[in-house]
Every structure is written in C-alpha cells, then in structure tokens.
Amino acid sequence: MKFTAKEHETYDAAVFLGFLENLLSRNPDGKTVLILDNARIHHAKLLIPFLTENADRLQLIFLPPYNPNLNLIEGLWKWLKERVVNNVFYHSVSEIRKNVADFLTSIQSGKRSFRDCVSSYSYSKSLINYI
Questions:
Q1: Helices 72-80 & 93-108, crossing angle to 10 degrees?
Q2: What value, to the nearest 5°, has the Cα angle with vertex 97 and ends 42 and 121?
Q3: pLDDT digits over 53-104, tens only?
Q4: Helices (H), the chain
Q5: From 33, 34, 53, 118, which residue has the greatest number of CB atoms within 10 Å?
Q6: Looking at the whole model, is its pTM more than 0.85?
C-alpha cells in the first residue's frame, strides 16, 4: 500500500484533478484504483473528461455515505493526531508540518506499520486483512 500527501491552501476539484494526473503519471503502465469518500470534489463535472479519457487506467470506488469506519484514512488521521498533534505545543505551523511529514515518511518507509494503525481502529477483520 502506498499513499501520497500534499498540502494546498484549498482543496477543490482543480486540485483533485491535479492529484489524479500526478497519480497516473507515477503508474504509467498499470491500473490505479482509488477508494474515496463522497466529497463533492470527487464528483465534480470538471473531472468527467479526465475520468472518461483514463477509464482504462483509473477506477474510482466510492464508499457508502456516513461510514467513516470503512474509510481507512480515518484511522491514519486518528493515529497521526494521537502521535503528533494531541497534547503538544508547537511554536510554529512549520514545526507542525515538519512533524506531520516525518510521521508520514516513517509509515511510507516501513518504520511504522499502517496495518497496525488501522487494526487499532474499528474496522472489520476482513478489511484489515486486505491491506
């Protein structure tokens, strides 16, 4: 499992389109499957031409509404808050950004296990075994 994080001032359909373009450029020969919540930007009309053009390379799967326990990223955010943000005083926003980036890098490098993170959250065993 891989994940990508990038900070923006706002998150709208144009930013999400850029994310999708970047994602496909990282996997030029394979198929990419994204599991998404139902945020409005994930369904924007702006995306239709891109999604149509890349239908053979990109599949979007939408979770049912109001089911955060099916959304694995919610477990990551919870874990990040517990380890990096809660009960910590930071002197600057850049210090918070650095610690969040370090945390995400430690997961991507395998120093921390995403599977362990989500297993402590309320997911079904079959979903966790899928990771």
A1: 130
A2: 60
A3: 999 999 999 988 877 777 777 777 788 888 888 888 999 989 988 998 888 8
A4: 13-26, 48-53, 72-80, 93-108, 114-119, 125-130
A5: 118
A6: no
